[in-house]
Design goal:
6 strands, DNA-binding, 4 helices, binds zinc ion, alpha+beta, three-stranded mixed beta sheet, homodimer, 139 residues, globular, three-stranded antiparallel beta sheet, binds manganese (II) ion
DNA sequence: GCTGAATTGCAACAAAGTTGCATCTACTAT
DNA sequence: ATAGTAGATGCAACTTTGTTGCAATTCAGC
């Protein structure tokens, strides 16, 4: 069992949640990854090491998100992308989306704010900021 | 023929593009609307007055977007929403998305900026800012 | 009115995600 | 250690949103 797998298992157990092999494998994979990755990429990556139904993957990802182990981002190709949370209390941060290769990264440094007032009766709860452009590979 | 329909037809003709009844009906509908509306809502709205295949609707919406008559926004429910452009040269602006009823409005007033630097080699081309919360109806 | 290119309708397809239900498994209580 | 149970998983079927190929129709210029 790899270090990341042990770490993933420990994270889940410490929160009093049920430890299953799918959860551990998926979270470990996400912990290793710098980018935000799609359902499809995760499936591909785990194919050889771990048998996993795609519905289970959807359900585990939703569960990881609900439990704040990961967060997800939607982008222009209409697919969710997932990334392990680096902070226990995830802070709002911006994302970068490459318009050519669709890579998504988190801009953890970038605090997101806005000041202008909303129309009467509207309340803000979250802010999402996406910078689009070309990544280092695609420039 | 309503005023908006005349206006829509005139907008298309003045740009030297082919005027078709689908384009006129759809653009007129969008000109009347304050919110950003989905494919589905447009279809529903035009059902009684104008026979229209859903593929044609997709194609006309894409065409209207390409020609800058409208712009589109993707939101958490993974459906594109369309709104007629109020300025001829559309400026970047933020959007508000209601987390309960999924309504999307344009925050035309809100200029979008960001300052923090990107990772080395990354280039920014557009910025998208979405404020999420509760709309006036859902508060 | 005729003509050619652009637009439309229809059927089939595709990607991404969801639902229902039977089976299996991780944790708890004994 | 064993058994019971709530929760997790696998599988098949389904849904939603959007796309593609192609033949038939329509628009704009002559
Ligand atoms: Mn992120
Ligand atoms: Mn807008
Ligand atoms: Zn790229
Ligand atoms: Zn609302």
């Amino acid at each position: 069992m790899s270090n990341l797998q042990k770490q993933a298992e420990e994270m889940i157990r410490r929160r009093g949640e049920r430890v299953t092999s799918s959860r551990v494998q998926i979270l470990a994979m996400l912990l290793a990854e710098q980018r935000a990755v799609t359902h499809h990429e995760i499936e591909e990556r785990l194919r050889n090491t771990h048998r996993l139904d795609r519905v289970t993957l959807y359900r585990v990802l939703e569960w990881l998100n609900d439990k704040c182990f990961v967060h997800k981002v939607v982008s222009d190709d209409r697919a969710w992308r997932f990334r392990a949370n680096t902070h226990i209390y995830p802070h709002q941060h911006a994302h970068f989306e490459c318009m050519r290769c669709t890579t998504v990264i988190c801009l953890d440094e970038m605090k997101v704010e806005y000041d202008r007032p909303l129309p009467a009766g509207y309340r803000s709860q979250e802010i999402e900021l996406t910078v689009k452009g070309l990544c280092a590979e695609c420039t």
